[in-house]
Amino acid sequence: MEVAGVAGSVKPVPVGQLTGAKAESYVWPTSMDPSTVGFDPESGILALAITAHPDFDDTPLFDENGDGDPANDGADWHSHWVVLVEDDGCGAGLKVRDVSPGQDLLPATAPYLPIALDSPGMSPILDGRTARITVPVENAEDVSFDAVTAELQVNENGEAPLLCVTGVHDIASGDLSLPGKVMAK
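Structure (tokenized):
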């Protein structure tokens, strides 16, 4: 994804707690079914996100900053698979799907939050005006995608909808028509 400014240069101001916490994200909504990476089939829009949020760490299996503590990395740019669904209660009309762990299917690397969020440990590359990530997904030829810059926020009361898309800065296609295509090398 090519951005207008310097990729990764804008991060949220910390609020000091999970509730009300904000996240900045580079997001690629796809045409892949969420079951491709371990979520419930046909449960929403599967999107890959590169995100930063200083108030919580949702990648407990990985130590992104290399300091030996895997529980303090939320402020560093990292990757997620998320399932997006519509919700009129959210500022931009979308949220990360709320789930019930133990009832809804979640990938093995999903963190402790009750939302359709996976922390697969893929490392993003932010270089100048480019945000890039390599995604190891088999049989993905002809998958459609788009590119979006957005902000999200954890609900201030800690209840559903837990993680709302509160603002969209830009959409590459202008209309989320998913015009990009994954091609085999």
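The mean pLDDT is 90. The longest strand covers residues 78-86.
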